[in-house]
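re: ur question from earlier - yeah i can do the single chain one, its not a big deal. heres the input i used so u can compare w yours
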Amino acid sequence: MGRWPALVRFAYGLTGDTGHAEDLAQITLSKAYASWGRVRRADDPDAYVRRILINAHHTRFRKRRVREMTGPHLPEPVTADGTDALDQRSDLIAALMELPPKQRAVVMLRYWDGLTETQAAAVLGCSVGNVKSQASRALAKLRTSPQLQDGSLPC
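and the output i got, formated as tokens:
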């Protein structure tokens, strides 16, 4: 139970949906339990579990890639009702969902979980240079994201 909130928060950043995030965290914990010997022997068990979560997300993404189709009529715009923080959060999540999966994972590890480039590279199983380049591309894309263009979120 101690890692559950952090796993759900991380999964939410990858999926953008609370239900999917909870499902993904549960899948991650069950896979970690099934391979507990390897998790325990890892240099950084938290990084190992995060890697399981990222792999589970990619597997889920590959299996059920369904694009939402909008109809000819867009819904009426919703007026702000004092939930600016929630609006900002949903704008940020929407912008994150526009990133490719690997860039999103790097952003989540580096800036959401606060890992160093070296730690993020270890979790993702790639080089530090790859983490740097993915982060650079992701931040450049986020800076030009229409969801974040009003300037209310620091980028």
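The mean pLDDT is 81. not sure if urs matches, ping me
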